[in-house]
Amino acid sequence: MTKAAKVIVLYYSRSGATQQLADAIANGIVQAGAEPLLRTVACDDQAACARDLVVEAEELRDCAGLALGSPTRFGHMYSGLQKFWETTSAEWLRGALVDKPAAVFTSSSSMHGGQESTLLSMLVPLLHHGMMVLGIPYTEPGLQQTTAGGTPYGASHVEHAAGSKLSKQELTLATQLGLRLGQAAVKLQQE
Ligand SMILES: Cc1cc2nc3c(=O)[nH]c(=O)nc-3n(C[C@H](O)[C@H](O)[C@H](O)COP(=O)(O)O)c2cc1C
């Protein structure tokens, strides 16, 4: 029997918006027949990190794919996530993530508050690790219809006045990204 393709959904969320995206992506991964592992990183605000386990190096080695999510912080990812990537030299040296599919997601308070710079810069450590990056194609109707988040670079949410609740298109686009990632992970999984 082939083992389930495990896809890590690694994120940080202080007030729940990025977590909503993480949950939608995990749902899409399940729809693809893969197994999502919702994980976070060690952080200075334990209340924000209470729900999910801290990711372990062994999980990076064993996974078949990874989604990385962060709130937009002055146009970049949360520093704790960056710090985490700086602990992954051993995995980088052994090529633990090479040729595995990856995707990114973010939440910001304002529409033009730096989502695209955050998403694109989050891809950089993943590319250094040799991952194969997936985005959201324009064949997804939600990309044209959204009046809030959802980008070709990754899933996103714009809070505006809505708080952490995702709009219909944001939810659909995040779920579809998870589905794409899960399908790629299943197809590419190395024995
Ligand atoms: C230090 C800090 C920097 C932030 N920088 C930005 C920013 O550059 N652009 C923006 O629109 N929102 C910014 N925000 C707001 C968060 O990105 C936004 O509230 C996000 O949805 C929070 O996600 P979370 O609920 O997952 O924690 C910032 C928040 C903090 C605390």
Helices, by number, come to: 7
Shape: globular
The level of helicity is: 25-40%
Number of strand elements: 7
Report the C-alpha radius of gyration, rounded: 15 Å
CATH topology, by name, is Rossmann fold
Number of domains: 1
Output the helix-strand order.
EHEEHEHHEHEHEH
Low-confidence stretches: none
Structural class designation = alpha/beta
Spatial gap, N to C terminus? 11 Å
CATH architecture: 3-Layer(aba) Sandwich
Query: For the record, what is the CATH homologous superfamily label?
Result: Flavodoxin domain
Q: Which ligands, by name, code or SMILES, are bound?
A: flavin mononucleotide
Taking the sheet with the most strands, its summary is: 7 strands, parallel
The top level CATH class name: Alpha Beta
Mean of pLDDT = 95
**Share of residues in strands:** 15-25%
Sum this structure up briefly:
The protein has 191 residues and is an alpha/beta fold. The protein has one domain (6-188): Rossmann fold (3-Layer(aba) Sandwich).
